[in-house]
Design a protein that fits this description.
It holds the Pfam family ig. By secondary structure, this protein is of the alpha+beta class. The chain has one helix and nine strands.
């Protein structure tokens, strides 16, 4: 009788495990179908690229910075901002954009324009903007007055000291 009881318990456990594994597999399959059918992931890697990475100009020059991204949609927008030398953020006015790019024109630069410029690509969802990806930034250095060195000559002169 003990042997029969052991066999019955063993069979019951095997059957319970099979049922549990079947239920788990069914649940996984249902979840996969549900997720793949109705839920879309956000666009992977917008590939936001800024150029140039760094730029030095003289006061009064104009500068154009470029931001390219790999997604084309009206629900995406581009926003530019500058981080100054203290790390403070200065949001810039909206700039025109084409299908996959935006440019920032800074005319008549001054040393106060120096800083790191970033473009951010945003996705608009029901009136709210969410940052999706940011460019690596462009470090702009605007130098003050223009002092140009036309030429330089290095001469070595020897001097002799006589003992008197």
């Amino acid at each position: 009788m003990k042997q029969t009881m052991k066999q019955t318990m063993k069979q019951t456990m095997k059957q319970t495990m099979r049922q549990t594994m079947t239920a788990a597999a069914t649940l996984c399959a249902l979840l996969w179908v549900r997720l793949s059918a109705g839920v879309r992931a956000p666009p992977a890697g917008l590939g936001v690229t800024q150029s140039p990475p760094r730029l030095s100009v003289m006061r009064g020059e104009s500068v154009t910075l470029s931001c390219l991204y790999n997604h084309q949609s009206r629900s995406f927008g581009v926003h530019w901002f500058r981080l100054d030398s203290l790390g403070r953020r200065h949001d810039l006015p909206p700039q025109p954009r084409t299908n996959r790019s935006s440019s920032l024109l800074i005319p008549d630069t001054t040393p106060q324009d120096s800083g790191t410029y970033h473009c951010e690509v945003h996705r608009r969802v029901q009136g709210n903007e969410q940052t999706m990806e940011r460019g690596n930034g462009t470090l702009l250095t605007v130098m003050g007055e223009s002092w140009r060195l036309l030429s330089a000559v290095w001469e070595r002169r020897e001097s002799y000291v006589k003992n008197v």
